[in-house]
Amino acid sequence: MTGAGGFIGRHVLSQLRDAGWEVHAVYSQSHTYAADNEKTAHHAVNLLLPGAAESLCKTVRPQCLLHLAWCAKPGGYWTSPENLSWVRATVELLEAFQHHGGEQAVLVGSCAEYDWSGEGVCREYQTPIKPATPYGRSKNATRELAELFGELHDIPVAWARIFHAYGPYEAPARLVPAVIGALLKGESARCSHGEQLRDLLHVADVAAALVQLLRVDARGAFNIGSGQPTRLREVIEYLARQLDAEHLLQFGVVPVAANDPPLLIADNQRLLATGWQPRFDLHSGLNDALAWWRGQI
Amino acid sequence: MTGAGGFIGRHVLSQLRDAGWEVHAVYSQSHTYAADNEKTAHHAVNLLLPGAAESLCKTVRPQCLLHLAWCAKPGGYWTSPENLSWVRATVELLEAFQHHGGEQAVLVGSCAEYDWSGEGVCREYQTPIKPATPYGRSKNATRELAELFGELHDIPVAWARIFHAYGPYEAPARLVPAVIGALLKGESARCSHGEQLRDLLHVADVAAALVQLLRVDARGAFNIGSGQPTRLREVIEYLARQLDAEHLLQFGVVPVAANDPPLLIADNQRLLATGWQPRFDLHSGLNDALAWWRGQI
């Protein structure tokens, strides 16, 4: 697995370990928080360097690939030229993986591949693909190439389109941590109107979905979401209630981008059909996030 | 320029040289037919090797890039896994080019990017894109990435969709050389029904179009074609008449693929608007090809 040090990667890694997989965890930089053990090896590799994927796969000879690494700097990643580098690095990784005996791959896409100007409920093989950002366009091109790779080499390739993941290790600037962080500090939480309907899924359930796609040799695109529309205002108010801090909420003071869709939800029928089930509902998930952020102070 | 030893590349190279450009000609393998001179340097580089593009661009520091290299083995290239490698290598080349000061790029696509099940006259920003082959899908993904590259770095990127080029140095297995070759040897030329309407353009005019896109800092997609529908039967019969060999033609003995479109023509208005004009019409072009192949015996 790549991106093992990331928000989603950390959760995937712990679930794979708990399930007894032999894991080679790849990080973008050296890490100090884990030592190799019998079942897990750690590798610091800059996959953007041409040739790095080849060396890695030659050493590890992985049977399965779960590729999470991508540029993910909050704010910046939507428009970064590094998106293009990740497309190229991903194809190089797939080729090296196949060249050294790889048998099955799960890659990660995004709801940003879909046309957001439509009805808002996204179905894998029905909703038009029309990414509006460099990030979405790069993910979508990678999907096209990964799909072609799978066909050319007869290797099962699953493409996991993640919607709105939240939970432990999320970047502090994103919605749930930003609200929790402000309220825990007794500061006001400046929000948009909050009327947007979004598909929130606890990151542990996102990770479980990725592991499930690995387990079942899944092929094709899968939305990774709860399938439930949640009004962001409800999320924010729930968090504030748990913290007795409703007086700190300021709705309507942050403008909403013109292209911000009112509704963006995953149809998760294809994911459910793999046997995956979420462990968290919205409240238990937010409680878990809240407990974790409290522990970080 | 890459692909300098290829069918189209040879013609581009001679035109650039004649026009006084300083050219760095990149070949997939070492070549013996040309020595460096004041205006042209030759480089043997396997661009599929990760890191090769970076070394090349670091040495050459090209201002303009004309990227022709791709897998092109007749028959095989439609479905080769090497198509994917060329996508990855092309992005790597674009990045290295930009990194070392590159200012403008022309890349080569194909009519195989279009949906062939439509009316058959292809317009760059109207005809649906629906490539049906690994080659077409890879070219199309590369176009999406090249377009994004141009936007992210504010570099003019032109995408030249070539239709049916013919002329000196064409691969012997393709239509025009195959018919000429058979008839020159006094063998029968086995053909399909020949009723397909195609857009034929002499390779020197294809090359001139690519050079023109370089000259005018073109941006976006350009069909490279004559704009004229030509029945393949007319091409074959014309060649046979010139060789007094009409008795050797066998029409209808080679089956036509089910997905072979009856009509596939370039709308070349965007190309004409750059100032490009073809030098050859169909007859003078075929005469030129014929003369060249005669000289090869």
From TrEMBL, chains A, B:
Q: Which InterPro entries match?
A: Epimerase_deHydtase, NAD(P)-bd_dom_sf
Signal peptide residues on this chain, from the entry's feature table: none
NAD-dependent epimerase/dehydratase domain residues: 1-225
Task: Give the pathway.
Answer: Bacterial outer membrane biogenesis; LPS O-antigen biosynthesis
The highest taxon in the source lineage is Bacteria
- Family per similarity comment: Belongs to the NAD(P)-dependent epimerase/dehydratase family.
Question: What is the name attached to this protein's record?
Answer: NAD(P)-dependent oxidoreductase
Organism of this sequence: Aquipseudomonas campi
